[in-house]
Amino acid sequence: MSRLADYFVVVGYDHEKEQGRICNGKILQRFPEQDWKNVPFHQGLELFCQPGGWRLRKDPFPPTFHISILTDVEAGRHYCGILTFSEPLKMTPMKPDDLESDELESSLVHNTVMYAPKSILLVSRLNYIDTFKNCLGLIYTSFIERMDVKLELLVGNILGHIVIPAAGGSQVRFSIGAGDRQAIQPPLSEMVPVTRSTVALLFQQLGIQNVITLFSLALTDNKILFHSSSYTRLTDACTSILALLYPFKYCYVYIPVLPEPLKEVLNTPTPFIMGVHSDLKNEIAELLDVTAVDLDGGTIIVPDCVNCLQPPEYMLEKLHRELTMVLCPDLQIADLAFPPSSSKGCSKPEFLDKEIRAIFMRLQVEMLLGYRLSLTIIRIHPKPVISFNKGLYLMQRGLFGEEFLSKLYDSMSFVTFVNERGPPYRICDIFDKLVANYQRMLIEEEGNQEKVLKNIKEISLQLYQNENPSPEPYVQKIPRPSETSLTDHQPFPRLNREELQEIISGGVEMAKVNPKLKKSIKTPKTQVVPIGPLPKDWEEQKNVVNNSARRLEVLRTCISHIFENKLLDARKMFPTVLRSLKSRVVREVLAKELALHVQENRAMLEMQQFDMVVKLINCSLQEDSSVEEFTLARRMLPLSVAFCRKLCTGIIQFAYSCVQDHPVWATLSFWENAFYAEVEKGVTQLYISAPSTDNKANDCDTGIIDTSQNGLKSNEIMRSSRQSPLEVSAERLKLWPDIGDEDKSVLMSNEEGIVYSQAIHFANHMVCMRVPLDTKKRLVNSISMEGESCGSSNLTSSAGGSDSYEGDGSYDSSDTTTTVTKFVSKFVDKVCTESGVTSEPLKKLHSMIPGIVAMHIEMLEAVHRESKRLPPIKKPKILKPVLLQGERILFPGYRGYLLPDGREEGIGGNIGGPALLPAEGALFITNYRIVFKGNPVDIQACELAVIRSFPLASLFKEKKISVGNLVHLDHYLQEGIQIRSNTFQLIKFAFDEEVGSEKVEQLRRSIGKMRFPPAIYETFAFQGTELLQINQTQKQTNKNATLKRFAKNTLMRVKGSTLGRAQQQSTQQQNRRQKYILPVEPLVPRRLSSSRLGASNSMESLSTDSDSRPSSVMFDDDDLNIIDEADVGTLKPSDTLSPDKLHDKLYVQDYKRLGLGCFETLQKQKFGRTAEGFRLTDVNIHYEVARSYPGLVAVPGPCQDDSIRRLSRCYRNNRFPVVVWRHPKTKALLLRSGGFHGKGVMGMIKSSTQATQSSNITSADGGVASKSIEQEKYFMQVIANSSSSVNSASLLSLNKIASNNSLDMQEASPRLGTKRVTTSGTALFQRSILRSSGGKATQGTLRSGGRANTLALPSRASFKSLTLGYRAANRNGSITDVDHAKAQEPRKADMYVFGEKSQLRTFKLEGSLKCDFIPYEFNEVRQVKASFKKFMKACIPSAVSKDPEMAFLKLVEDSEWLPQIKTVMQLAGAVVDLIDCQGSSVMVSFEDGWDFTTQVVSLAELLMDPYYRTFEGFKVLIEKEWLAFGHRFTHRSNHTLHHQASGFAPVFLQFVDCVHQVHRQFPMSFEFNQHFLQMLAYHYVSNRFKTFMLDSEYERFEVESLLVVDCGVSIQVTDFDTDQVISDDRPRMNRIDEAGDQESKRPDIRSFWEYVDQLNEKSTIFYNVFYSEGSQSRVLRPYANISSLKIWDFYLNEHLSCGPAFDCELFDAARNEDNETPLSPADRCVVNACYQNVAQADPDMQRWLLNEIIQLETDLNVATSHWRTIINKFNASMQSKAKLVSPVTEEAKAHGTSIHKKITMDILRGKSGGESPRGFASHHRFESHDFQTPTNCDACHQVIWSYMKQGTGMRCADCGFSSHEKCITSAPKQCLRRGSSKEPSNTSSKQTEELTKSVPINNDKDPNTYLNFAARIGETVSHKGYLYKRGARLRQWKQRYFKLDPNKHQLRYYDTDDVQTCKGTIDLKEVESVKHDNYSSNLPGVPKLDDNSFIYMKTSTRDYHFLAKNKKEADEWINKIQDCITN
Predict the structure, then answer these.
(1) Helices (H), ranges, 689-793
(2) What contacts 1865, CB < 8 A, 6 or more positions away?
(3) Strands 112-124, 77-91: parallel, antiparallel or unpaired by DSSP?
(4) Which residue from 195, 758, 1835, 2022 has the least number of CB within 10 angstroms?
């Protein structure tokens, strides 16, 4: 029984605290004035009376009522019914502070009447909202109507005389004395919420999906905030959400109506459900993690940062279906032609409310089905203590991976649910009954919707009856005030305190003695809570798919053999058993079988038995996981302390000492679950055991009492052992009230004793499993099994060792004692506190733990001592790897295991094949490789040899990992190392226990030292060589030891150079040059052996690089190595080169082949002109001009050497333009150079240095001008000698493609003439370069043929860049567009210069311009490095990941490796088109000219020249473009310690990958095969050959001229840790006599090409059998789009049988070891993809025929022919026949050519990097179309009469191509809209008509015919204009230009109206609605325009918000879009 209301409060306006706009309310009266004992009075009620604030109003307002819900400190809810009305108030204005006394009279204002709010409220613990409203209304009515009744009587009756029975009581009828009749019916159950019709109202406001979203957010503890203009709606909505959560109770902050002064509460970090007035909705938008719900607008906004989890998919679909059945019953009959007349609509709101709640109750039951089976009973008396095993429940139901349910079971609501509904004997409600019967209901409902609806209505009826249990209707009488009375506003009177208190007291006394009230009280009955049947899928979710009776039988047989000591038979089955332990069911059977043998007293085992049992336990625990809640570990725990073996007399070793390395033993949750399970068993056994009546004392000790004296029979206590713990505890709780107090205390004591004894028992278990056998070692099971530790991100840290790693030797046993004691104490404290153990036993437990730990450690010392005396386990023999000649092992084999990584190959499993990994063997470190060799652990594959190796020089990253236990192993592997290679190999190696931590750290340090030797001469390629001692005069003094000093000196030099002192420049420049340069080490150090060279003697400091942009002021890794070319001393005079020494160079011979000059005419015509206009110059023969250039280069004939020297200063690193290739027909040239100089920090240093050096050549005033003039002369000479006649009308002409693509193309591109272009009368270009200071520039003239062009040249700075763009520069240096329209299209030029966008400077264009600069976006070296790192991790992952974001293709896409390949191929293709089709010369000038430039130039030459696609030609190409022109192989591959920090940059690898892509598309055009490319990619980083070492020809010449041969026999080997000489026999050297023949005594170090030639002579290993010389086109044009590229097999494949197949000697030797008995040709063998080399094992017909011919010649005693001779004879014997080429093939070739050229045109237009079309992948999408007007067919040009004859007209839905149905086959293959790289331009109908007449289309076989339609088909735009659009991610408003296309049903938007590239597209087919949006005006960041101009568009994928300029434009857009959708 409880009062109807606890307090009555009157709250009014507070005049005393009124300050300006801040107004408050105050409590005027409250009754009773003293707090009730059990119900305290709430402070701050005045805030909830006016949530929006207390404000005075000019006009009265009608009375309002709302409910506020408050929560006390004990989580009890208090309901405040608040009635607010207006009260008149006279206001007298106060004197203003700044008003003078003489102005007072004029400022007086008469008294004004204002209206203040006043509230009366009732505070109650009962939720009778309607009754509160009635009672407060009656009080107000009595007051306003001046009824003859005292207000004190009404209030007193409410507070003292009306008593409401508890839930389940009878109906109460009462009157408060105001002529009223009222009734209150308590619900049947207080646990079931009362909602009336609020839930139905919530669905009406928000809809199904929004309410489901709110339901999910509330269950997963998220923040929800409602806002509405009605406080009542806020309370109803919050109450409805809580009702839907039933049976869960919301445990967080719950404030349905939050007052505005308390809005700071919204920033609380805890979840909440609150409601605020809509006036605060603008402030809601600032809350980041709060879901805002607009009840008035019916929308919800879930922030992006909130993870909105939802129930499982099948539950969600079922919920949607059932809600639709209830809310939309007419939906099922909506499509019926004859719907039934008796169809029923929705139920009444009260019944609909209950039906919705019933559906959600069914969902809750389904989510909690069988939850009681996972409850654990810890205590029964005095009150139940229950825990829920979440992991066991999820596992048994198969719900792993369901984030929603997992988070639900971890929430506070679920904890409260378990505490309240967990007890097995309590009051039950509707939910408990539904749980018990739900399984039966599901079976009945299967496939029957009517049955589902019937069951829903049955549940809803129970909910309705719970709220309305009384069937008798009662008509209430509630007087209301009249309409006239509501307008009469009178002050509310003050109530009489004494009179009111007397009425309340009288009512309280009357209630105490009223017998009727006591009779009406009904006590709810308690009962046993039904458990319900098992869920249907409870047993089905067990993992029984991979199990069979045979497998389990093998397990039982093997275990039986072990315990019967039949070890030989057991070992045969052992591998099979170990593999089967991956199944959970098999592991459970293993635990049962081992437990049976323990019960049979077979726990004492022999040595080998013990080892095998321990191995089984370890393997099973290895597969156990936290997902399964370590259920197997709990079963293995007693077995590990049972099985043992006898080491000697008195010393026994238990199995736990061998299985304690698993992380499960360090998991506190495992011990808690195991403890609770054992306590439950003990408590259950306590009450199901038979009672003993012989001795009561014994009964107390054993936990059994005699209850017969209490009148209870023993069979009432005794139950079968099959009773569940819940049933036993329910029985005990039922008997609890009838047991005496003494027996109750005994039962509580017994239960506490069980908890106490189990706590001691588990403390001992924990000590056993936590303390290691060797107490000096650290706790191994505290390390995560799969974690990695001490990993170094770079080899820099690992080279020096890891000092932070805690080694085993430094661990103290006292640390073990402390750690284990704390761990056990924490466990004991937690479980005993939750189990209700008193303080005294708990203190006793804590005092026992240190003694237990100390005693156990003492016992283990003896066990550890004796275990060391056991004979060691025989381990397999270490297999030694095969070595190369000169290769030696530096570190002997370290035993261990090769672990599987993220690749699935080689581990068996789903892919199949033998389980090759893990493999047991050893890790070897040689001076060339890192090698693992061993055998698989799997016994079925143990006879195979596993080899994984890679070159030591290719090591990319090394880090330390922690391993753990492995399958098939019986011990813990703690140390591990992971090594990743640039050759795409990964070695994940776990060291055996015999390898200590010191050896591991020593190995890691040594790997780092060997990976980065101090000097280049210590690499494997220079093995056995030494250096001659260099003369001391070449040494330079290091005066700039620090960067600070270097910067100071440099700035001094720059300042001095800019002062313009001519006298100092002539006399002191040489000294300054030597004084202020970067410190340079000697080129060649003194003679030392290669193993003793130091880091200071490295020649790598001479390398130059500049990866950053010229305008950058920041440095990267490579910038710190930059040295100016002229700052370093060149060769000595005695060592100068002569041209005859370079005569045999391959690139010199290639120049002769190309007609660019020959060696014979070098001396004769050195300053003349050759027949072809080009010559070889030896200007760089001493490497003075460009250190990284070759000694001989090809230049135009008229160009003098002095001009080249001046020209070189315009380019970075003096890499001036040189000719590298010439087209045989068009005579167009391909040139390469470094980037143009810029004015960054390094550019200033360079230009200052070069100005100083050139003082002896040019004057201070004319030096810069001469360089620019020389540059212009040079380009004029290049153009004059390269132009050729090109037919512009040819289909192969690039200009032809341009003329067909655009209307303005013909005007923008001049027609090419056939006349040979010369320099006479033609100016190269005219430009304007302004000084950075903004001043005037000096001018000079260049005269050619009597005609001058004015030049604007800088006076103080060097030439910045050659920039030929379409923009002009203002005088202040800003850039403006000259002709934007013309700049969109390319112009025909005789020469194109490709360079960086940062080099683009401004100068004007003239009509005679013949040179064009094309900026191109390319990937910098730093981007290549980052991409390679990601790409390598994708190809060789370290671990298997199931995350979709870590999938292989996703990682490859994120790495951006293929887009970088595409960038190189596209630009190379553009170079090919310009040279081959248009006949224009091309110069490639990027960065420093040795990375991206080399990639593009070499690939372009490969595509244009078939010679480079042969063995010899490809060798020439690499030697010329990569080696001679100075690609920095040593720097990019990090060959030495000096280059370690720069990082590996696979520039050359990208080029080889590009060649692979071309080779794959044109397999018949290459003489070599893919294996040759893989060999090249492998050995360019292997350091086996000197070919790809050093950075320039200059460095290679110096090294080769100073190397001597090591003729000694013994080789010096150094210990890398102690630096002690192991073998110090000094070898003897052959000194090279200066006067002698150096060539004869130079060391014979074979190059890569020699190695390949030798292999190529022996076999066809590198020959491409598909090669057909002359059958393919001379010029190759590959597809470069991403879809046409393929990930190279080199990145993915490996061969574990012999290792990499690129060291052929090693590969053949390993293969011969594997196949000791060679197979006959008729034998068959099984080939595994990841083990054998499938390419070599696969039968090859060509090679087999060659071998057969050679064998026949041998048998016939005929001289054996070489394989190449045989192939040549075969090709010669083939008669040349005219091959018929199909039209499809020709069309495909023509189409590929046109697509290739279109990409070139895009590059010329500045659209680099775009995705190119994908061949014929995009076809037309023809649809039947009715043409309303006569339309011509685009195929046959006849009229389409579809409006007369249906079905004859067809139209493409994408491009609008119109045709007859019969003409579809004649339509172009490519759809222009879907396949082209650019949308057709928007042309008018007049332009389209003119273009149709001008373009011939009668040639159907023309492959470019389809391009003609691009200009004829224009866009169809019905409406366009600017709109503001709200972004989807950042929620920002941006202005976009929109176009509405009615034909394609698209709304496209662009950045501006003049941009042709579409920013995005909205498909109108997906639009669901478009309308005005009034809500968007409140969004943040909205532009300040008309509030009525917002547009809201809802699509099936997302919502769009737009903003027009005004309402008129918004209406027009809405109408146009709706018309487009309708049509």
Answers:
(1) 696-702, 714-717, 725-735, 741-770
(2) none
(3) antiparallel
(4) 2022
Query: 37 CB contacts (<8 Å, ≥6 apart)?
Result: none
3-state helix, strand, coil in the chain (%, to 5): 40, 15, 45
Q: What size, in residues, is the chain?
A: 2023
Cis amide linkage into residue 914, ω under 30° from 0: no
**What's the average model confidence in pLDDT over 1276-1300?**
53
> Angle at CA 69, nearest 5°, toward 68 and 70?
120
Q: Decide if 1316 contacts 1284 (C-beta within 8 A).
A: yes
Which residues are registered as beta bridge partners of 1025?
A: 1605
Amino acid (1-letter code) at residue 382: P
Strands 1193-1196 and 1990-1995, by their bridges, are unpaired
Q: Mind spelling out the 3-state secondary structure of 866-880? A: HHCCCCCCCCCCCCC
**143 in Cβ contact with 479 (< 8 Å):** no
Return d(Cα 1712, Cα 1690) in angstroms, integer. Answer: 24
Could you say which DSSP state residue 35 is in? P
Per residue in 1163-1195, pLDDT tens?
555 444 444 578 888 888 888 889 899 988 888
Which DSSP state fits 1536? Answer: S
The span from the CA of 380 to the CA of 269, in Å, is: 37
Rg (CA), the chain: 46
For residue 241, with 0-12 CB atoms within 10 Å meaning exposed, 13-18 middle and 19 or more buried, which class applies? buried
Distances (CA, A) of 419 to 383, 388, 670, 1670: 11, 10, 21, 86
At CA 1166, angle to CA 1164 and CA 1172, rounded to 5? 90
Q: Which residues of 346-374 are buried (b: 16+ CB within 10 A; e: fewer)?
A: ebeeebbbbbbbbbbbbbbbbbbbbbbbb
**Token digits for 650?**
């008195």
Which region among 1125-1134, 1458-1467, 1496-1505, 1787-1796 has the lowest average model confidence (pLDDT)? 1125-1134
DSSP H or E stretch at residue 142: helix 129-144
Task: State how far the Cα of 1808 lies from the Cα of 1467, in Å rounded to an integer.
Answer: 8
pLDDT digit string, tens, across residues 524-536: 788 888 887 766 6
End-to-end CA distance of the chain: 69
DSSP assignment string, 602-652: --EE-HHHHHHHHHHHHHHHHH--GGGTTHHHHHHHHHHTT-EEEEETTEE
601-624 residues labelled b (16+ CB within 10 A) or e (exposed): ebbebeeebbbbbbbbbbbbbbeb
Whether 637 has a pLDDT exceeding 80, the answer reads yes
Structure tokens at 1934: 């941006």
Encode pLDDT of 249-262 as tens digits.
999 999 999 999 89
b (16+ CB within 10 A) / e for 1918-1928: ebbeebbbbee
Q: Is the pTM for the entire model greater than 0.90?
A: no
Identity of the residue numbered 1187: R
Class of residue 170 by CB neighbours under 10 A (exposed 0-12, middle 13-18, buried 19+): middle
Rounded Cα distance between 1452 and 1458, Å, is: 8
Half-sphere exposure of 635 (CA within 13 A, CB side): 20
Dump the DSSP string for 545-613.
TT--HHHHHHHHHHHHHHHTT-HHHHHHHHHHHHHHTTSHHHHHHHHHHHHHHHHTT--EE-HHHHHHH
Asked if residue 1145 lies in contact with residue 1192, where contact means CB atoms within 8 angstroms, the answer is: yes
CB neighbour class for 1235 (10 Å; exposed up to 12, middle 13-18, buried from 19) = buried
Give the residue among 1060, 1096, 1056, 1099 at the shortest CA–CA distance from 1075: 1056
